[in-house]
Amino acid sequence: MIKRDPDVEVSALGQHICMSAHKARRVINPIRGRSYEETLMILELMPYRACYPIFKLVYSVAANASYNMGFKETDLIISQVEVNEGTVVKKLKCRARGHSYPIKRPTCHITIVLKDIYKDQDYFIWLRKTGEKDT
Known about the structure:
135 residues; alpha+beta; 4 helices; 3 strands; 33% strand; elongated
């Protein structure tokens, strides 16, 4: 479960998004642990349909962080991301000779948590271990 600390982390939850959780995880995995600006560029260039709702959710979390907590958008990183399965919408479609065919539309719930890197000392320790440069 995602832990929430109001001093450091900001989260947003998108519920009942009409796509399967497997397809959303395909888009979520490359952006886990990246900076906010880098995440937006990755989501704009990916060719999947799942990118647009995730892009809107990341943008919403950053707006919440800057407005409610006063964080700078350039200092935010994606600390945690969860994709859970939601309810399945079941419909019936008419077929030939009076038969019906069931249609199942899966949904998913996406939770994104952003963290301010200057309030998180573990991020700087991770940068030193990996040898990456902080921009």
